[in-house]
Design a protein that fits this description.
The chain is α+β, with helices and mostly antiparallel strands. The chain is built from 12 helices and 45 strands.
Length: 677
């Protein structure tokens, strides 16, 4: 249903608009709402509704739209299209117009947005569009203690009475320059006369949470705040002519072994590398092998208190890596000599094995960072595998690309076993067990799939049942939804996975985290959540459901911090039903291209958004393996499969050519026939 507005009044003193609607029916309430679309994620979030005050006058409804409400809730840094509606006998009523209406603009020179009414397809729409500003670097001076910045701001709004913040934002990965994780903001003062900013940063105040890996790129940005909202963030521009002046590396006086390196990017933005400088502080002086052990002798540049040799398992994280598992050994000191003998019988720390594991060596000491164990040229490592752990594994001592010591483990040959019954939890792991010719017609000869739980977030699964869930899934809301998709959504709401798992008694469970990589979470209340799956998004339920908050991937660090609490609970409970060694993690993966019907390789759009998904997927996988380190893994990262328009599931960045599914089943058969130690 719809009703037609006939006038718009503007009250500059009260800073509000009033919409006049003839009283042609009884309206119980009015509200303003907008839908937010994430184009890179290809998700339309559910409508956010805000109630509006109204009264009746001369057979009209007069609806008050406060500027403060629009300003507070408009999308920060993006244009927001507000629509208006009401409810009559619990039925939604949209407010339209019979052509454009006249209106006056609110005079708001200090506001961070411009506001105007538009009438696309006769729908009454209030546009909140961010005003533009730019910021450029005029000078930068750095030493071991301070960084002194000078900026110049050009803005379409008055700068007086606005708060400004200088932001350092760490890229998720150097290549993903539009996506950030850790951030730190510093209040700065801006001159309202000439738009100049002078700010001195104590380098000791830089947050050590930025020091995640060896690729800590921090971009510099500026944003403004007023009483209602926050502006978009603008990158600080620096000309290529300033490059020589700006490019400088300093070692921080109050943060030992830490450097800050300023530079100008190819797109003329001010950026920094913030890194630990640990190379060659701990060195391998001698390495020998006996039939029973490996023998190490060490050299340290500085005195180290109670040093230990630590091995950390290297896990891929997009184009970098991270460590989530470790094992350590005490180092013996005799006079000025440091040494360690590692028994081959007890070297490998886990019960099971992932293909081509690399464990990097570090030296740990009280009050010091972990130093990588450097291998100088005079120390020779033989390129041959050694049998360890009673012949269960093979190990290769090796130098990394940075000449640091590492062990590479491989599985020793073993006798086959059997495994058949399978439960699948995930959204991209079922396809290899389909029996169409494109997939695996003989899959059922090897695996009986007891049940599949799709489109369910780890978060949703571990929350309480929503008391009103039985009324959520009415047939009217799912008239155009496939029955299987509706069933998956209902399973997500029922939270009965572990009950079904206990009844199934599977030999193996196959997991993937794709849903948590891609889909938001609807928190219905403080204790109950629902996965905002494609099914829910496409249903009529999406705009009717009442929820307290929506957890999205716009801030991946915040999503990860909330997710891992529930993921750990899920995995710990999962181990009560299935031993770690019978849990298989499908690491999944993405592709940037597909082959079309004419055999042409076509790249997908939003390459960086896909790469960011892969980066985040790697993070989730690494956390999962830190909780269940003895789980088995399927990882086809190095095989570079592409997508295909022939795929019966359709082509996408997470579906692949036919060979992928054949290889997946072969890998599953191999894992099922490999005995557990």
């Amino acid at each position: 249903m719809k009703i037609l507005a006939n006038k718009i009044y503007t009250d500059s003193a009260k800073k509000e608009w009033t919409i006049s609607v003839p009283k042609e029916m009884i309206i119980d309430e009015f509200f303003a709402f907008f839908k937010k679309e994430n184009e890179t994620e290809e998700i339309i979030y559910p409508a956010l509704n805000y109630k509006l005050l109204f009264h009746e006058e001369e057979n009209h409804y007069l609806i008050t739209v406060p500027h403060e409400l629009i300003a507070q809730h408009s999308i920060s840094g993006a244009t927001t299209s507000w629509h208006f509606g009401g409810k009559a006998n619990d039925q939604f009523v949209s407010i339209h117009t019979d052509g454009p209406l006249q209106f006056k603009t609110l005079p708001l020179p200090k506001d961070l947005y411009n506001y105007r009414f538009e009438f696309p397809e006769a729908v009454l729409t209030l546009i909140a569009e961010p005003k533009k500003f730019s910021v450029s670097l005029t000078d930068l001076a750095m030493d071991e203690e301070m960084a002194k910045f000078n900026f110049k701001v050009e803005a379409d709004f008055e700068l007086s009475e606005l708060d400004a913040e200088l932001i350092f934002a760490r890229r998720a990965n150097p290549h993903l320059y539009l996506y950030f994780e850790q951030e730190q903001a510093f209040p700065v003062t801006i001159s309202s006369k000439d738009g100049k900013i002078e700010y001195t940063l104590r380098l000791a105040d830089l947050d050590t949470n930025f020091l995640v890996d060896n690729s800590n790129n921090m971009d510099a940005l500026l944003r403004f705040k007023n009483d209602w909202h926050t502006s978009k963030r603008e990158f600080i521009q620096a000309s290529q002519a300033q490059k020589k002046q700006i490019d400088k590396k300093v070692f921080l006086k109050e943060k030992p072994f830490t450097s800050l390196d300023a530079y100008v990017t190819g797109s003329s933005r001010l950026s920094f590398y913030f890194r630990k400088e640990l190379q060659k502080e701990a060195q391998l002086a001698e390495f020998q092998e006996t039939p029973e052990s490996f023998q190490f002798r060490f050299f340290f540049k500085n005195h180290l208190e109670a040093p230990r040799l630590v091995f950390k398992r290297r896990n891929k994280k997009f184009r970098t890596s991270e460590y989530t598992l470790k094992t350590e050994f005490a180092i013996k000191k005799k006079f000025q000599s440091y040494s360690l003998e590692l028994s081959k019988e007890h070297l490998y720390p886990l019960q099971t094995y992932q293909p081509n594991e690399d464990w990097d060596a570090f030296i740990r000491s009280e009050g010091m960072p972990d130093f990588p164990l450097f291998v100088p040229n005079q120390v020779t490592l033989k390129s041959e595998y050694h049998s360890v752990d009673g012949g269960k594994y093979l190990v290769l001592p090796q130098k990394t690309a940075l000449s640091n010591f590492s062990f590479q483990f491989r599985k020793a040959p073993s006798k086959p076993g059997t495994a058949k019954k399978l439960v699948i939890f995930g959204s991209v792991s079922e396809a290899p067990f389909r029996t169409e010719p494109y997939f695996n017609p003989d899959a059922r000869s090897f695996f009986e799939v007891a049940f599949v739980q799709k489109d369910t977030s780890f978060i949703s699964l571990m929350t309480e049942k929503y008391p009103a869930r039985t009324t959520l899934f009415s047939s009217a809301d799912f008239t155009e939804i496939d029955p299987t998709d509706r069933e998956n959504a209902e399973r997500d709401a029922e939270k009965d996975f572990f009950l079904k798992l206990r009844l199934a008694e599977p030999d193996y469970i196959l997991l993937d985290a794709f849903t948590d990589v891609t889909r938001p979470i609807l928190w219905l209340n403080q204790h109950a959540a629902l996965t905002y799956s494609k099914t829910i998004e496409a249903s009529r339920l999406a705009d009717k459901i009442m929820f307290e908050r929506l957890l999205t991937h716009e801030n991946t660090e915040a999503f990860f911090e909330e997710w891992r609490k529930y993921a750990k609970e899920f995995l710990e409970q999962l181990k009560e039903f299935v031993p770690e060694e019978r849990i298989i993690l499908n690491k999944g993966g993405t592709t940037l291209n597909y082959v079309d019907a004419n055999g042409k390789v076509v790249p997908y759009k939003n390459k960086m958004a896909i790469e960011m998904k892969q980066y985040f997927w790697d993070r989730l996988n690494n956390f999962i393996l830190s909780v269940i380190p003895n789980a088995r893994v399927i990882d086809f990262d190095v095989k570079n499969y592409t997508g295909s328009s022939k795929n019966p599931l359709g082509h996408s960045y997470a579906t692949f050519e036919e060979a992928y599914y054949k290889d997946f089943l072969k890998e599953m058969i191999y894992l099922a026939e490999t005995p557990k130690h």
